[in-house]
Amino acid sequence: MQEYKRILTKKLIITVILCMLLNIALFLYGQLEGRNINDVISDSRQYSDLISRLKTQREESDFEGMFEDVTQIIKQDKEDGKESSASLVRLRKKLKYLSGFTSQVNECLQQAEQMRGKKLFSNKKSYSYNNILKTAEDYSRIADVKVVLVNDTCIEKTIEYKYTYYLLAVCMIVMIYECFKERDNGMWQIVHSSKSGRMILALKRFIFVWIYAFVLTFIYFVSTVIVSVLLYGVSGIWKAPVQSIETMSGFTIKCNMAAYMCLLCLIASFVLAMFGSIILALFTVIRNRNVVLIGSVIFAGAEYLLYKNISLQSRISFLRVVNIINFFDINTLLAKYANWGFKTFVVSSKVLIITGMAVVTIIMSVAALIKSVTLRPFGAQNVLKKLFNKAGELYQRIFALYPPVIKEMHKLIFTGKGFFVIAIGLVLTLYICGSGKMVFSESQKEYDNIYIQKGGEDYSQLKSEIDELNSRYDSIQIQLKDMHACH
Prior knowledge:
Blueprint: H1 2-7, H2 10-32, H3 37-57, H4 63-79, H5 86-117, H6 127-140, H7 153-160, H8 163-179, H9 188-193, H10 199-232, H11 257-285, H12 289-309, H13 318-321, H14 324-328, H15 330-335, E1 339-342, E2 345-348, H16 349-374, H17 383-399, H18 404-415, H19 418-435, H20 442-454, H21 460-486
Helix pairs in contact: 2-8, 2-10, 3-5, 4-5, 5-6, 7-10, 8-10, 8-11, 10-11, 10-16, 11-16, 12-19
């Protein structure tokens, strides 16, 4: 308990509060978009009123009829020379998604069934066949989901907001950095020699990381949701299926919005706890905590640059997928439907990523606990270390003769470890510039050639030919259905 009291200093508490206020400020800034708070609240109320009026005129599940009504209003506004309100345009987009959700899921299931029957995908031991089976199984869970029309802007904006995860990671690193004060204030020898200064101390710190992660994530999530509720309201949204939000169409677990928010908070807590355990393991194993801190910042910066500059078509696109920025984009990780695997083994990408991170966390945590027993405040002086110290003494004698300008440059580049930043920046720049080439398929290259040759020409004749072919195709399909019905 004394260790936990020592860690929870005023400095750490102030840092957590400031980051929470920054989180709320960034969320508000993203929602306002140049408007004031009253305008945002007014727009949300207008959007809710439009939904209420549509529900009184049509059945709640008649999304196609509502879509036609809204489209007609927008068309009339255009004919009158008026600009339709943003709420009306957003409502039309929402209705278009809701009206096509059930058919989209059914189409996915039908395509899976059709592809299973094709010879190309008929090998039961292939990845393609098993991926089709898994896709059909996953989407069948939400085939009977009845999406609803509600003003779910509050939930949508909250789950799309990403800066919460980054600020939580910053708070976690600050807390872990505070744990290892004894490394710099001369207390390490005393702590290491005490009864509980090794394995038990390290174990307590790992436990505190998990408690800290869950409590901190809950506080940050609740504060963000409260601000979002004050802006957009929450009338009748908690029991609505989460698939009612367009960005959640790939989420194949049947649950309402309240359950999804709890799940998102729980997964975020686990990810933050695993991230904190990995950082704590590095701090435990490496003697100098400043080296770990600087290395973590450089690594995070490098990951951000890789994520921003590498295209998904690049040969090194795996560096964008297996990236810490992706790990902290938790809502996209959960909402995006993707499977990975090999032959008969097919698993959801989100399950594989979280499981892989958990395995790495366990391995590094166990290794750090073991290392915490054997690591000593002072390492043994071997022959190489003695020679290095002698060389250092000789260099200091020569260094004393340098002019002040050279000494300042030396302090910046070598003493301040500035050469690490320069070297890593150069390596990343050269590597990305030399290897980050985009790869295009033959069909994409052919499309580019057609565009270069035919771009800007009149294609009305080609369009009429395509329409004629489509009509012939439709008539043949009708004839086939009639023949099947006769037989």
